[in-house]
Design goal:
The complex is a heterodimer of chains A (about 325) and B (about 500). Chain A is mostly helical. Chain A has 15 helices and two strands.
């Protein structure tokens, strides 16, 4: 302690503690995911996180940083978690590892490590995979029912090693995929299937992401601005489109409950490093990510567009911050 | 005078553990007279006063040791009677660790006062009063040590705000002083109101001081002009600008002083010392010091200025090897030396606790979580200040991010999950910027000088050339005449010789 090392007291909250709380908030949705899709996702997480931590350690070593405190910050752990749950659990292992490599090595360490990455690492990995392997990325295993047996079917745990390609027959499209296909074929969407007659796996998981997100807000890990404005934005813009032509554009609730809306709102765009720090900046960022997502979902080539919307808006963060600096006390 | 009860909550702030009750269990204590007092000569912001005693002199309690030399200066007094043993640079309680001039008094145990004259406040001119105050040694005892007579040279003050917030954890000296010297405190308020003709006073006190609040309420009764505002315990509510906002909802604009908006702020201990001086003639020779932290019996002491702090720490159950912070845990600094005397600025001695020692130290990169933004009472962007301080972009710091509005309260460092010592970065940047400003000032002067030198050289050269030309002009005329005459003479002489030869 030097004479001027004030303050002498410190609130007990570390980066590791923040990352731990975020992980805790992700667990309910993980349990739902296992219930619907099987234990495979857990195996993927174990493999993916281990690989990510090894990559992180190697990068730290090469960059002459102390390994232990930086591994403990949990950022590689969380990035890996978010990427692994975002891709179908039937994804071949090497595909997943390619995504992790881009997340950890290219989008983070190549830009100067934690705190210096302009783009959301998990979303970079996801976007690379979505562009490179579109078929694999959009084919989720079919899941109509929550099955407790899934928790005990340990044979699934590391089934990714069994095949290097997806097995036909157990795969089905997500609701967003179905809509995209129906639109592509020119079928009126309301005739293709009914969307609210059951809570499918994706909607249940969305609800759990929402619950996890609210927990993070209560714990004051995240503030409400980014999630609320993203959700509001998706709601409002898809509402407008649905009002214009209900045969082509799905209603707001559909867009909220499907795809990565709640996952992104609470766990992706709340990544502090790559999002704006100012209050008005957060509002602009949330609204714009929502708008771009709605545009991609309804007019673009991909069923879900949040990853692209996030990366796109990451580019604008320095500019947004420059023009949204709040007034300093006494300058009003 | 109608005063609104509304509390205007300021942005940000933190709520650290108070640790106040450990030092408020017993009344304010007095130590027996120390054998020696080490009294630093300058204990205020401003000019070093002029020492008027010499080694071997007998001094009385309250006698002036050093006279103020300018308006921005204050007197320093002997805290008890005795002999001047030494006058020399010694360690003082200052973060720089550099020594400064001190007077060492060997006490004689008689504690003999000078003749004290109280001031007839009703029949004294303001200028006389201010002159007397300048010689009373009254300075801001909240820690800033700004000479009080300067603050009393103000016009059209509408509101006196009393800073009784005492928002730093651990410190309880104002709390205890308000409980035990309630009348002196209220006298001080009334005297200031009288001197500056102020119609109303608001005392801002944090709600963690229930005894002081009830004591004040009973003394104030149904006073119409003095209003007690009880504010929630949030650090740093005792910061002047934050307190003014809490009380009045007025944000002091950048580069304005509270007095320009008709507001003057005084601290509790300062008001008590003003009352003691005016009502009893006593100069500032002691103050209440909270001695707390990792000690057996934390306590408050009415300590003579110059009391060796080790005696206080020992009495409070500590030992000399302990690290000690002067001030609170948020803004205080670790004393580089503990062989120093109590000063007017010393509101608290805080023995460093194990919790403080174990403060996590691995500094991690900033992840822009903006926890610091949420707590910054100056509404700055601490993460941007950090980023630009680290990359030495000083212009951005001052122009875009208003570094100099940072009050160094430490809220940002307190909450930073990456353990970044943010305040140190800001202090470093501030001193670098001041240094640059100073050196650019020096550079400006040097450039001016050089330009003037070149100008002077040029001018001298021209003058010299002109003079030479003139001289040449003058000289050549004479020379020409001479030459012509010489030539003429030679020719004439030759002609003569020719003529003579012909003859």
């Amino acid at each position: 302690m030097t004479p001027l090392d004030s303050p002498a007291i410190k609130k007990n909250m570390s980066v590791s503690a923040i990352m731990f709380t975020v992980t805790l908030a992700l667990i309910p949705a993980l349990i739902a995911q296992i219930g619907f899709f099987g234990l495979q996702i857990l195996g993927n997480l174990i493999i993916g996180i281990s690989f990510a931590l090894i990559l992180e350690a190697v990068c730290l070593k090469l960059r002459h940083y102390p390994i232990k405190p930086f591994l403990k910050d949990g950022s590689a752990f969380l990035t890996a978690w978010l990427l692994v749950i975002s891709i179908p659990s039937s994804t071949p292992i090497w595909v997943m590892l390619v995504g992790l490599f881009f997340s950890i090595v290219i989008s983070k360490h190549a830009y100067g490590g934690i705190g210096s990455n302009p783009f959301n690492p998990a979303m970079i990995g996801y976007a690379v995979l979505l562009i490179s392997f579109p078929k694999i990325m959009t084919n989720w295993p079919s899941a109509e029912q929550f099955d407790f047996n899934n928790f005990l079917n340990f044979s699934q745990l590391f089934s990714m090693f069994a095949s290097i390609d997806i097995v036909d027959g157990i795969v089905s499209a997500t609701p967003l995929d179905k809509i995209k296909t129906a639109l592509f074929l020119g079928e009126p969407i309301n005739n293709s299937f009914s969307i609210f007659d059951q809570f499918n796996a994706y909607q249940i998981m969305s609800i759990f992401y929402l619950i996890g997100g609210l927990y993070l807000m209560i714990k004051k890990i995240i503030t409400w601005h980014l999630p609320v404005f993203l959700i509001l934005s998706i709601f409002v813009f898809s509402f407008i489109l649905h009002q214009i032509n209900p045969d082509v554009f799905m209603p707001s609730l559909f867009h909220l409950m499907n795809g990565a809306t709640f996952l992104a709102a609470f766990f992706i765009i709340t990544d502090p490093v790559s999002s704006p720090t100012t209050l008005r900046g957060k509002i602009i960022f949330g609204v714009m990510v929502g708008l771009i997502t709605v545009i991609i979902r309804n007019f673009g080539g991909y069923p879900d567009g949040i990853a692209f919307a996030v990366i796109f808006m990451n580019i604008f963060v320095p500019l947004i911050e420059k023009f949204t600096q709040p007034k300093v006390f006494g300058y009003e | 005078m109608n005063i609104s009860d509304k509390i205007f909550k300021f942005f940000g702030g933190i709520k650290p553990e108070g640790h106040k009750q450990i030092s408020t269990r017993n009344p304010i204590k007095r130590l027996p007279l120390p054998k020696e007092l080490i009294i630093p000569i300058r204990q205020h912001v401003g000019k070093m006063p002029n020492i008027v005693v010499k080694i071997g002199d007998r001094v009385l309690k309250g006698q002036i040791l050093a006279e103020p030399v300018a308006n921005m200066s204050a007197a320093t007094h002997a805290s008890t009677s005795g002999y001047v043993k030494e006058i020399k640079p010694m360690n003082i309680p200052h973060p720089s660790g550099l020594p400064d001039h001190c007077v060492v008094i060997e006490t004689d145990g008689k504690d003999e006062w000078i003749r004290l004259e109280k001031i007839d406040i009703k029949n004294i001119s303001l200028s006389n009063l201010l002159e007397k105050l300048k010689h009373s040694g009254v300075v801001g005892l909240g820690g800033a040590t700004f000479p009080s007579h300067i603050k009393l040279n103000a016009n059209r003050i509408q509101t006196l705000i009393v800073n009784a917030a005492e928002c730093e954890p651990y410190i309880t000296c104002d709390d205890m002083a308000m409980q035990e010297m309630t009348q002196d405190f209220i006298d001080g308020v009334n005297l200031i109101m009288h001197i500056l003709n102020i119609p109303k006073t608001i005392i801002g006190i944090e709600d963690n001081k229930p005894q002081a609040i009830s004591k004040l309420n009973s003394v104030l009764g149904s006073s119409k002009n003095i209003h007690l505002k009880i504010i929630p315990t949030v650090y740093p509510s005792g910061d002047e600008k934050r307190l003014i906002y809490l009380m009045l909802g007025v944000k002091i604009p950048k580069e304005k002083r509270p007095t320009e908006l008709g507001i003057q702020v005084f601290n509790v201990a300062t008001l008590i010392s003003i009352a003691r001086f005016i009502n009893y003639g006593e100069p500032v020779i002691s103050r209440v010091v909270t001695v707390t932290g990792a000690l057996g019996q934390p306590n408050n002491y009415q300590a003579l200025i110059g009391t060796p702090i080790q005696q206080l720490i020992k009495d409070a159950g500590g030992d000399p090897s302990q690290e000690v912070i002067m001030g609170g845990p948020m803004m205080g600094f670790k004393l580089p030396h503990t062989d120093v005397g109590v000063t007017k600025a010393m509101n608290c001695l805080l023995a460093v606790t194990d919790e403080m020692k174990s403060k996590a130290s691995t500094e991690m990169p900033c992840i822009r979580c903006t926890k610091c933004v949420e707590v910054c009472p100056a509404q700055l962007q601490p993460q941007e200040l950090y980023w630009h301080a680290k990359s030495k972009q000083f212009e951005k710091l001052t122009d875009d991010y208003k570094l100099f509005d940072c009050i160094e309260c430490g809220c940002c460092s307190y909450v930073c999950p990456s353990n970044i010592p943010l305040v140190q970065y800001y202090r470093y940047a501030k001193s670098e910027i001041r240094e640059q400003a100073k050196s650019s000032e020096i550079a400006d002067i040097a450039r001016d000088r050089n330009e003037f030198r070149l100008f002077r050289l040029e001018r001298e050269k021209n003058e010299r050339a002109e003079r030479n030309a003139q001289r040449r002009a003058q000289v050549s005329d004479e020379d020409k005449k001479k030459l012509i005459e010489e030539k003429k003479a030679t020719i004439e002489a030759a002609m003569k010789r020719v003529e003579e030869n012909e003859e």
